[in-house]
Amino acid sequence: MIDKKMKDKDIGKKFAKDLKQVQDQYIDYPYPLRNPEDEKTRIILVGNFYLGEINHWVFGGKESFQDNFRILVAGAGTGDAVICYAEQLKNTNAEIVYLDFSKASMAIAQERAKIRGLKNIKWVNDSILNIPNLKLGTFDYINCIGVLHHLESPELGLKILKDSLSTKGGMDLMVYAHYGRTGVYHIQKLMQMVNNGVTSRTEEVKNGWAVMTSLPATNWYNLGSNSPSDHILFGVCPSKCVNSL
Ligand SMILES: C[S@@+](CC[C@H](N)C(=O)[O-])C[C@H]1O[C@@H](n2cnc3c(N)ncnc32)[C@H](O)[C@@H]1O
């Protein structure tokens, strides 16, 4: 946790390293699992990827997206959001910046963009923690979905993103929700027990599947779809904070 009295440079020093186990996992298992070839037949368009929705919630319906609009997708994974923004903005002078510290994830996203012929994406294989040194400029919209909870200090990540916003900018964040993930936390503990002393990730996954497929239907994880949402999605913009599940 950040002590409120800490100065920015001290916060940066204390938490300025990436968690190697997180990075290694997303290098070995890019997320979400995507086959670039699928770009030939479909596009993934969910609510917060849709420019009309962003315009409504962040810009009060007044954004034209025609004036050098800049988007950062921080922790962009295999590229769902980047592809969708780039596709919607391909006939404008907007720029979409992809940022992720997993090179394997970026390679999949790049292949998807190539198949679609998208040229409006800047590719950055780096950490959110390094944004202050990357000279990326400011952004009118930042998407950071399922990422900040992976940082040693989510507050530092949030501060770095906030400092990267233009004066009119807003962002869309998603972090895991404690109660909705109760079943997931049970499974995490179980996995740590069954994989105690195991050093190979392949072996860990094999053991994990063996356990998962033997769980009764009444297990809290399997009941997850009936529980409260396992994530909190919220938008932040200069004039308001919109909370939704
Ligand atoms: C759960 S995935 C979410 C991917 C994407 N945002 C989505 O919603 O499909 C988390 C992603 O964040 C990336 N990530 C985690 N910590 C990061 C950091 N400090 N800097 C850059 N990327 C990070 C991981 O490599 C991974 O691709």
Structural write-up:
This is Class I SAM-dependent methyltransferase domain protein. GO terms for molecular function: methyltransferase activity. It comes from Candidatus Megaera venefica. Keywords: Methyltransferase, Transferase. The chain is built from nine helices and seven strands. It is an alpha/beta fold and 245 residues long. The chain has two domains: 184 residues, Rossmann fold; 48 residues, no CATH class. It has a seven-stranded mixed beta sheet with strand order 3-2-1-4-5-6-7. Helix 4 runs parallel beside helix 5. The protein is globular and about 55 Å long. The C terminus is likely disordered. S-adenosylmethionine binds next to helix 2.
Question: Quick recap of the structure?
Answer:
This protein is of the alpha/beta class and 245 residues long. Helix content is 36%, strand content 18%. It contains nine helices and seven strands.
Helical content stands at 25-40%
Assembly state: single chain
Ligand names = S-adenosylmethionine
User: How many domains is the backbone divided into?
Assistant: 2
CATH H-level superfamily of the largest domain: Vaccinia Virus protein VP39
**CATH class (first level) name of the largest domain:** Alpha Beta
Number of helices: 9
Low-confidence stretches: 239-245
Integer average pLDDT: 88
What's the Cα radius of gyration? 19 Å
Q: For the terminal residues, how far apart are their CA atoms?
A: 25 Å
Largest sheet, strands/sense/barrel: 7 strands, mixed
